Amino acid sequence: MPGSGASGRAAAPVQQRRREQRPQRARRPAAAPGDAADAAAAAAPARAASPEQTEEARFHEAYAKASGAAPPFPRSPHAARTGAGYSGPAAYTVSQLYNVNRPPPVPLSEYEQRRKRRDLEDILAAAKKAGKSQDDVRAGVDQLEKLLPDVVNLNRMRASDWVQLAIDVNGVAAKLILLKTLYPSADAFSMVTARPKTLLQSEEAIREDAAAVKKLLTGAKDVCAIVEAVPELIDATQLTRSLAWLRSAFPTLDAVELLQENPLILRNIGESNAEDSAEYGEMTTKD
């Protein structure tokens, strides 16, 4: 309609004047993401840090003072104010994550010393349980270490068995001499270190086993080399089982010759499990 177009054009200047008369609001410049986060953290009420977070913060600060380096993780304003720990950006350099001034690792010798102390404690506890003098057992263990360095090990024999050897060190020395007599070219010390249960047998039982072993290995060129390589075969019963297994596994070969050429064949194939574990072994204190 003609009238509607004129009225619309007349209303436009009025609306323009009203917008010009309105007060203009000042706009703040856009803040950077990091500034906005810091401002929000500053405006937020301070929250008490948990004991775990406070302890972590103290640890990092003490470590930084001891090493002379800056803390590996920067702290945000909120964390600095509340002691809530370190919370910086997610990307760090290798030198920040792995401080070059870290404490040195524990040497292997220290682990060995710790193992020996634990073993001695278990042996003394077994001595007390058996009604033996702990002082005598401790002195006997020291003598065993001098006679056979590093032989005392609970991974090889039970604590109660070590108690028996510790109270009869003279008997241990006599059995070492006997083994050297029965197997002249073999290293008796290494044999006993690898298989200390031999020392639990009586001298008569050791002689009988040696006679049976030499009879079973009649065709062998060097019996001493075989028993030195595999000390478990000093037990006649175990040697009988091992020879039977070799004959069944290699029916076309001579078991004794095969064992002489490669004494470790039983261990390599997994059949030298002559000895059970120290905890559940078949060997007992009885002969």
TrEMBL record:
Stretch list, region Disordered: 1-57, 65-84
Low complexity bias (residue ranges): 1-15, 29-49
The name this protein goes by in its record: Uncharacterized protein
